[in-house]
Amino acid sequence: MRILICGGAGFIGSHFTRIRLREHGDQVVVLDKLTYAGREENLADLRGDPGFSFHAGAIEDAAAVRAAVQGADGQAAVDAIVNFAAETHVDRSISSSEDFVNTNVVGTSVLLDAALAHRLRYVQVSTDEVYGSIEEGTFTEESPLAPSSPYSASKAGADLLVQSYAHTHGLHTSIARGSNNYGPYQYPEKLIPLMVLNALHGERLPVYGDGLQVRNWIHVTDFARAIGCVLESGAPGEVYNAGGPDECPNIEVVRRIIELTGAGDELIEYVTDRPGHDRRYSLSSERVRGLGWEPRVRFADGIGETVEWYRENRPWWEPIRSGAYREYYERQYGRALG
Ligand code: NAD
Ligand code: TYD
């Protein structure tokens, strides 16, 4: 297959790109704006692979999308679009929603028009957060959309647009909704890499509110493989949830990271809660299991490997921690990184 992977220089997109090239022998074109969260280093090992090419550009820029989708003859140069490109951090969406609407909603509409022009297969990467919070039980694909944050509202808006192109134009679209991902190459604004790097540096570990919010953790390679199953076998217009095998309250995740890094409990600092904080996410993944997918990595194993990856890959995170991330951190947490 020839696949245009939008947002392929980010966390999940880079894993998906590597898996499709290395394990499936696909031809891959990555289109990525290289925002603060997207880095060509995430794909460094794929440079020079004859099946891989990279375009710098934004998904809301129709000319950039056309250049990535079409060959010189005006014909489609790809068979499918898989869209990972997004603004992804809830806390940033609370500070300002503008980039979230531009990329997540407007960008998705531009990609859908490009897919429609060439009748391309289209897979939208989405999130459990579009369903909102669930204190007990589990969301299915039939659960109503009730997003809480500007981030999840923009993702829900994009999902509805995708559904409308399937319904109105008969475009073969599918949506894959994942739970909280973790693993190598995750930008350290998210809970797990933030806590790992702070613990390794002896910095405070900022736990929002009471720390008893629950997340359903999925290893990034498991979500990437679920998206691959949806791409290959997903039914037109269908939604597929992919949740991880384990759920865990945030404070237990932080305590496990403390154990794995050899840091001390005194680093834990309870800070002001996130406004509108969702209490719990939980996904039923029966439908994607029906496509032959199942998660392979238990949280107890994956968290250990993830901590080891950050410990061993200082050249990956050092430029982040010494760059613009410092200003973000100080704005968000009201304290400078040491
Ligand atoms: P990320 O923030 O690590 O990467 C996002 C990528 O998109 C970056 O490479 C960035 O440069 C690129 N990008 C941003 N705006 C762009 C634009 N306008 N045009 C082109 N490229 C742009 O994100 P991630 O964690 O890898 O998430 C990928 C997708 O998966 C997102 O759609 C997200 O909503 C979804 N998702 C994430 C999680 C999670 O736990 N991280 C869970 C479920 C779903
Ligand atoms: P996050 O990684 O931002 O993912 P999401 O909000 O999309 O679930 O946060 C995961 C959980 O960790 C969430 O309940 C918020 C909490 N959290 C903290 O307690 N402290 C932090 O510094 C961060 C970034 C998150």
Task: Write up this protein.
There is one protein chain. By secondary structure, the chain is an alpha/beta fold. The chain has a domain at 2-182 and 218-242: Rossmann fold (3-Layer(aba) Sandwich), CATH 3.40.50. Helix content is 41%, strand content 17%. It is built from twelve helices and twelve strands. α1 links the parallel β1 and β2. 48% of the residues are buried. The site of thymidine-5'-diphosphate (TYD) has 12 residues, from α6 and β8.
Offer a few descriptive terms:
338 residues, alpha/beta, Rossmann fold, 7-stranded parallel beta sheet, 3-stranded mixed beta sheet, binds nicotinamide-adenine-dinucleotide, binds thymidine-5'-diphosphate
**In the CATH scheme, what's the topology name of one domain?**
Rossmann fold
Count of DSSP helices?
12
List low-confidence stretches. none
Q: Name every ligand kind in the structure.
A: nicotinamide-adenine-dinucleotide, thymidine-5'-diphosphate
Radius of gyration computed on alpha carbons? 19 Å
Q: What would CATH call the architecture of one domain?
A: 3-Layer(aba) Sandwich
What separation lies between the terminal Cα atoms? 47 Å
- The dominant shape is globular
How many strands?
12
Topology pattern, helix = H, strand = E: EHEEHEHHEHEEHEEHEEHEHHHH
Fraction of residues in helices?
Answer: 40-55%
Beta-strand content: 15-25%
